[in-house]
Write a structure and sequence with these properties.
Nucleotidyltransferase, domain 5, 7 helices, single chain, alpha/beta
């Protein structure tokens, strides 16, 4: 962006990008609805130690995507502290309309979703030889793979964890408008949101490193 716009300062280009990323989340956006898959995914380089939900050196992200038969609808992704009900239940309530069909794996942190007004379907991964041939949650697993590919191609797999949410917000914005035939409309929505948003000073753009 610095080279494209002829900016002398890298910091100026960095600030512009960070400000634009904060404009990709609209406060009045509607929640996901209908049939929705929910899971957690993990971002970060290879480290020794536990894998999956027990990984200590990876960023944990909650992900939800609408399923419209064989097609995917809208997407939500949010950085979380841990894969517990205290983190996952608020994520579902914030991003999914009550009464929706929420499909998850058998992780116990999702057990309370029925009490929150959702139709919860927990799928247990079979341990048979055929288990690897078909994903339990194909929608969220596909989106996890695509998002990681973008992170690898754009940032070579390296990123500052404190800014991961902004990168994910940009990815979600682009994905949810993937079927838009006019790129100009996507640009217009960003400009519209930027004009309506309050100024963001540099001190609010620079975040403290994650411990």
């Amino acid at each position: 962006m610095q080279a494209l716009l002829g900016l002398r300062s890298y910091q100026t280009a960095w600030c512009w990008l960070q400000k634009l990323r904060t404009c990709t989340v609209f406060p009045d956006r509607s929640k996901l609805s209908g049939s929705v898959e929910v899971d957690e995914c993990f971002f970060g380089g290879a480290h020794s130690g536990n894998r999956g939900r027990g990984a200590e050196h990876k960023c944990k992200v909650a992900i939800a995507v609408e399923r419209k038969r064989h097609k995917l609808g809208r997407l939500r992704m949010q950085v979380i502290e841990c894969c517990s009900a205290n983190e996952l239940t608020p994520f579902v309530k914030t991003n999914i309309t009550a009464g929706s069909q929420v499909t998850t794996d058998s992780w116990g942190a999702y057990n309370g979703l029925k009490n929150e007004g959702y139709s919860h379907k927990a799928i247990v991964q079979s341990k048979t030889a055929d288990a690897d041939k078909e994903s339990v949650l194909p929608g969220v697993h596909l989106e996890t793979s695509l998002a990681k590919r973008v992170m690898l191609g754009t940032f070579q797999g390296r990123f500052d964890p404190q800014y991961l949410q902004r990168y994910l917000d940009e990815y979600v914005f682009r994905f949810n408008r993937r079927t838009c035939k006019s790129p100009g409309k996507r640009f217009w929505r960003i400009m519209q949101q930027a004009a309506q948003s309050a100024p963001v000073p540099l001190k609010n753009l620079v975040l403290e490193p994650v411990a």
